[in-house]
């Protein structure tokens, strides 16, 4: 049996007790690779997790960081005017060094790194025999300097991208990687995320109660950061509620993973929403395990991103839950939210009257909304459910492993 070392970033732990789309995807996909591979997952430590533990046949190793070594690297880079610390081969050096020392003993056949191209060079020094796969859920690789890319490109055997958008950007800006780039959509566990069977039953989550006979719920889920455009949604809901006083906006998430600490943007959202009174609900952080319950509260899902999203796991989750989606025509989103088929795309989410109009349209036309939601579920079943994604991933890993035999 081949050995697979899966490396998460230095920010969040796996299992995803603090949330995080990448960590959630990594956790799901890792379990599906058993028994084809002997899998070890390396991630940040967390007080709620043992340093080393086994679950579903996977070994999880959690790496602690004192912070002393990273600050030392930053200081040296500043003194020597080298590349920014973010592009350094020693970025998160304490984290990667600890992983590298463990890899020497583990002798993995494949090292599979999520979202951190900076890790490639250093970890390759510890296990030069291993094949290296980089899985990009964001735009960071294409944004690195030529000098940083020179260290990384020769050491990569495969680059997996979460969307054609990310793959196209990499192929355009880094031509030497074109033949090594493959696309696999983010995966969703459709057994956990299901459409509601009874649309008349009172919907509950924690202390939230939505009575569908008298209320209609609009949901946003994700981090509460300016580039996600939640302030645009709050402003749009003021017009929606004028027309539909029974409408409720549920904002699910926090400014940082696993925490309900309020920053200036969350404070701004709360200030903007004061006039909405009981028509708006902030849930705070919700763990991935609880998210299926949250989706059952809603009639419509809205993601008014102002940034070029790589793909957006929440749009796939909402689709799996049978919800019609309103989203921005940005980045990789149009690959999974198809205008007029399983959702509605808007070119400018900062056009609040237009956003309000689209929300009202779906609230006014439940049959259309239901059809869009059914098509969203079908799209996920055919393109992004865990078995389909796993099959594609195993084929790619077999290809990489075969080249080393």
Summed up:
The chain has 405 residues and is of the alpha/beta class. The protein is built from 14 helices and 16 strands.
Description:
- The protein has 2 domains: 206 residues, 3-Layer(aba) Sandwich (Rossmann fold), CATH 3.40.50; 181 residues, 3-Layer(aba) Sandwich (Rossmann fold).
- Helix content is 38%, strand content 19%.
- Strand 1, helix 1 and strand 2 form a beta-alpha-beta unit.
- With 405 residues, the chain is α/β, with parallel strands linked by helices.
- The two termini are 13 Å apart.
- Helix 3 packs parallel to helix 4.
Could you say what the CATH topology of the largest domain is called? Answer: Rossmann fold
CATH superfamily (homologous) name of the largest domain: Glycogen Phosphorylase B
**Classification by helices and strands:** alpha/beta
* Overall form: elongated
Q: Give the tally of β-strands.
A: 16
Number of domains: 2
Main sheet specs: 8 strands, mixed
Report how far the terminal alpha carbons are from each other: 13 Å
Number of helices: 14
What's the CATH architecture name of the largest domain? 3-Layer(aba) Sandwich
| Overall radius of gyration | 22 Å
Q: Mean pLDDT, nearest integer?
A: 94
Which CATH class of the largest domain?
Alpha Beta
Largest sheet: spatial strand order: 3-4-2-1-5-6-7-8
Tell me the fraction of residues in β-strands, as a range: 15-25%
**Could you spell the SSE succession in H and E letters?**
EHEEEHHEHEHEHEEEEHEHEHEHEHEHHH
Indicate the low-confidence ranges by residue numbers.
Answer: none
Helix content: 25-40%
């Amino acid at each position: 049996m081949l050995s697979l070392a899966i490396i998460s970033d230095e920010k969040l732990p796996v299992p995803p007790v603090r949330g995080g789309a990448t960590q959630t995807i990594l956790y799901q996909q890792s379990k599906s690779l058993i028994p084809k591979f002997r899998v070890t997952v390396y991630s940040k430590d967390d007080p709620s997790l043992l340093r080393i533990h086994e679950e579903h046949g996977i070994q999880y190793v959690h790496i602690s960081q004192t912070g002393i070594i990273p600050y030392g690297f930053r200081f040296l880079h500043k003194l020597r005017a080298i590349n920014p610390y973010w592009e350094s081969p020693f970025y998160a050096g304490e984290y990667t060094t600890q992983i590298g020392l463990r890899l020497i003993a583990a002798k993995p056949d494949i090292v599979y790194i999520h979202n951190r191209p900076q890790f490639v060079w250093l970890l390759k020094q510890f296990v030069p025999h291993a094949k290296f796969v980089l899985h990009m859920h964001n735009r960071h690789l294409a944004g690195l300097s030529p000098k940083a890319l020179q260290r990384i490109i020769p050491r990569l055997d495969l680059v997996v991208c979460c969307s054609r958008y990310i793959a196209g950007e990499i192929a355009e800006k880094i031509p030497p990687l074109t033949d090594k780039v493959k696309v696999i959509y983010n995966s969703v566990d459709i057994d956990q995320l299901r459409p509601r069977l009874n649309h008349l039953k009172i919907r509950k989550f924690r202390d939230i109660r939505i009575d569908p006979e008298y209320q209609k719920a609009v949901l946003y889920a994700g981090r509460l950061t300016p580039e996600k455009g939640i302030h645009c949604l709050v402003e749009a809901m003021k017009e929606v509620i004028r027309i539909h006083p029974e409408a409720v906006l549920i904002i699910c998430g926090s400014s940082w993973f696993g925490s309900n600490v309020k920053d200036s943007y969350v404070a701004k959202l709360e200030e903007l929403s004061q006039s909405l009174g009981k028509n708006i609900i902030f849930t705070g952080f919700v763990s991935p395990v609880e998210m299926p319950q949250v989706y059952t509260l809603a009639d419509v899902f809205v993601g008014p991103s102002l940034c070029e999203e790589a793909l957006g796991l929440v749009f796939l989750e909402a689709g799996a839950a049978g919800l019609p989606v309103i989203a921005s025509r940005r980045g990789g989103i149009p690959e999974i939210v198809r205008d007029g088929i399983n959702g509605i795309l808007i070119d400018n989410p900062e056009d609040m009257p237009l956003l309000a109009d689209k929300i009202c349209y779906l609230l006014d036309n439940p049959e259309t909304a239901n059809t869009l939601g059914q098509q969203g579920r079908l799209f996920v079943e055919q393109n992004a459910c865990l078995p389909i994604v796993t099959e594609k991933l195993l084929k790619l890993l077999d290809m990489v492993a075969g080249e080393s035999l």
